[in-house]
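Researcher: Go.
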Amino acid sequence: MLDKVITIFQYGKPDTSIGDDHSTSILAFPGAEGGGRFTTGGRGGEIYRVTTLADYNKNETPIEGSLRYGIEKSNQPRTIIFDVSGIIELKRGLYLNEYPNLSIIGQTAPGDGITLKNYNFTFNLSKDPAIGAGGSLNAIVRFLRCRPGDQFADYGEDAIGGRYFKDAIIDHITAGWSVDETLTFYGVQNFTAQWCIASESMNLSNHAKGAHGYGAMFSGDNASFHHILLAHHGSRCPRISDLSAPGTQESYDFTGYFDVRNNVYYNWSGRGQGSYGGKYAAFNLTNCYYKPGPATGTNNRSYRILSSDPTARAYINGNYVLGNTGVTADNWTEGVWGQFDSSLGTVPEAEKQAMKMADYQPFSKLTSHTAEQAYDKVLEYAGASLRRDVIDQRIVREVKNGTYTYIGSKPEEDGKAKQPGIIDTVSDTEGYIKVKSLNPWPDTDGDGIPDIWEEAYGLNPNDPSDAQKISSSVDPNGRYPNIEVYFHNLVQHIIYYQNQGGIVMEKK
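Model: Structure:
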């Protein structure tokens, strides 16, 4: 039976030591790292099964078995798994602000996974403390694709993002085709975004301010942004949020130390800001890989590490700029100090040196690679990579080859030529690809673990209570509930290989 399970699932015997940290309490999941690694999500609560790709609006009858119903039915701990794969055509945005204590486990979807279309997926938009602003969202979201497009999306919508909350982790998310940023989390606390792909934000779409096409914004307190690919963006690739500056915070924005590392940035527009921000912020920007593309050009943005402000306090080191050995060897002189906005005038040398931290700012434990290692690892394993779809495959291929496939179709506002790889609308691309679905494995007791897996590892396929128990036959280390070991088993090969060659680090 065990050989049959390994053959069918192709992931080998479950091993929670892969990605785990035995020196601490249990993680959100083996492989969880950074500021959000202790998020508990829906642990110990209801197992909710998504059985339909349907969605409903506020004035429509709720649909049991839909993703929205599972999110909005409660604020008690619950874990959402999938019995279907495909595209969920949202009828309005998904908001978690009133619905904390949640895990969404996308790798359970049979077939090619889940894509969210039409609207945003927002972790916390409210500024009202009565419905959660500034509180613990306690959310885990893994292996989903968020591509809202612009057919219905409103002004300023991100593909996935949030603010005004603490305690969450997103892992192996694919985001793209957004009106505003593709992946944006700022002013957050105890948060991680890891191993994600954020590509092809739309430049001239529905945004009320005109040209956008923005990549990401990062900031927070004990927040980690690592092993993320940003590709084909007009600007904010990424923006280090300026929320630490006096007068910029709103109620329940969290400011403190945050860590940005091992990200890959490709084909940011030379007309946009590229990587910028960080006024008054305290952060690390380390071991990222910058690869100019066809839209980047040859001006100073082609070797920009960060256009910042003398009030920033940052450890910036180990970043690699393809084609520029000088900036690679010395990130600061031309990559940061040489990128000051002209409005700052001549910045005194003492102010420049005050920006430069001799050692890391504090950050939570994670696996760190060199920039060159991160380039290979991110391209191989980031995004919803259990079954990487043809769109992500194309994006990764373009990054590897230094190319592009699509270009925007609308005239530029300033009359200039279009920028290769920077799209304006979904119709500029191959569009949404059909997502194959398969029948789920039989699960007699409905506990979320397939019968064949339970039988192979000494569980009872007729006992739904064993899903939340800890069994030595499943986890000899006695740390994770059986169902969480099953979730891990589905992707443990990815966790194992993505972390190879790295160094586990933290700075308290």
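Model: The first strand starts at residue 46 and ends at 50.
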